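W.,

You were right to be curious about this one. When I first looked at the sequence I had no strong expectations either way, so I just let the prediction run and decided to look at it fresh. Below is the sequence, 553 residues in total, followed by the output.
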Amino acid sequence: MEEVKKKPLTLKHIMEIEENKLDEEDLNFDWLSFEQKLLKWRDNVSKSVKDREEYIKQVQQANKEKRLELLKYTSDEGWVNLIRKCKEDPIFFFNMFLWTYNPRLDKPHVPFITYPYQDDFIKQIVEAVELGIDVWIEKSRDMGLSRTMLWIFLWGFLFKEWSVLLGSYKEDYVDAQGNMDSAFERLRYMIKRLPKQLKPKEMLNKYMNISAPGCWEISWDVWVNFWTGWRRKVVFMDEFALWPRDETALQKTKDVTECRIFWWTPNWTGNVYGKVMTNHKAYRHLLNKKIRLPWRLHPLKTNVWYEFQKMTRTATDLAQEVDISYETSVVNAVYPLFLQMATKGTYVYDVSRHTYWSWDFGRDSIAFCLWQKDFQTGNVFLIKSFKRVNWNIKDFAWLVLGKPYAGNSWVYDERDFKIMKFMQLVRFHDHFWDPYNSDSRTVVSDDSIRKALADMGINITTNRKSTLRERITKTQLGMNRLFYDKDNYEWEQSIIQSHYPQKSENREITTEQRQPVHDENSHFRTCTEYFFDNEPLVSWDDWGMIINNRLYS
């Protein structure tokens, strides 16, 4: 700490004010380099959090003194240059004119001074808005980005004439007078503290709306009618993972703006936000920019801080709020230890082994898994899995058999023909599926699923004695013997994301009454459970030896 004390907090990198005015030459260097140098903690500062906090206090005090000096001595001519500098450099504007409010302090009005990771974030967002590129952001909690994002929009409103539309799934979080946690109250606070030279001459301040003459506007709306109205420079969708109609919002807002910004902390991958961030095949073609902001970027968050978080948060809370983990952030997961127990790798079809096919027929989706087993070790291998939505049952069955149904060959695409080519190589198989729905009717005809597939040479095996709880327990016990090929991404995500409903505050749900939520993840989950529920204990060769011994003994 001794070396730190010797380091002077000079303002040599701050603009020198000469003769009570700001000249253009004075604006041509990095205003904040002295602050950023102080924030390079790993190079020249003790790693003690206390030391870092002390440095920040010193930086804030020096920054505050320079702000006051700036406002006191700047002439009208100097303000012209100063406004130009603000317009050209949002980071300069942030660090010299914006404030934050901390009610826990004796002096709650604190200069807003950006950390290096925030500088980079500001530059990326401004560039994306100007170029018209969608941005998807994933972040740890408490990184100061909610306020930073609002200040970016305020800068664009003041200096670039941006028309901004901000959206939320809940109106109460948007505008509440006197509540500094609400977005518009933060904006009003900041605008109030700006020098008059930086404010528009005319500005309307209404509920969930701040506007100036022309097209300048910052407005907010809730998800119900969010995609209506005129075009905007940028649209921001806060807490997008919680929006009830996220798919509709994604589609409709593309006609409202060229730049949309989505963000949230990880929740699960069953919604649009989770699918985009985990590169789901249905969304991976989208042109967008992804920004990841983990807690380690924050200079005050150290390994000691993280260890404390681990002691004070649940595993799910830590994954969702701190670690940016989609896999372990699922609440009430059916298979919470799947990633720790199962093994992912490259596992190909072994022609010497028998195969086992598990199916699930839902109202709108049909899923299939192909399994093999090493009876010497007991290990189980998932070789291939796929699912189709709104398909005729016979078309799907012909796909599995590797024989395109002549009457409906138009339903198959290139990926289907690749699957057929592979399935034509597969021999020696048994079929497992739902013991309770195998006799239900199919949209193909009045025949049951069992009969419809029997006519195609597919004979099923079911275990009608097992309960749902027993099937799940068998699957859980089999996870440590499970090896799955890395190409089974959708199956993997379905197992990870399968979850039970959250318990209502007003009613108890017993263990026996709990059933997993039925959603798009259910089909691969039940496919897996049908296999483990019917898993053979001995191979076909061993069965042959047993039968022969009984016949001739």
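Here's what jumped out at me. Confidence is low (pLDDT under 50) at residues 1-35, 37-47, 438-446, 549-553. And, maybe more interesting for your project: The first strand starts at residue 99 and ends at 101.

Coffee later to discuss?

I.
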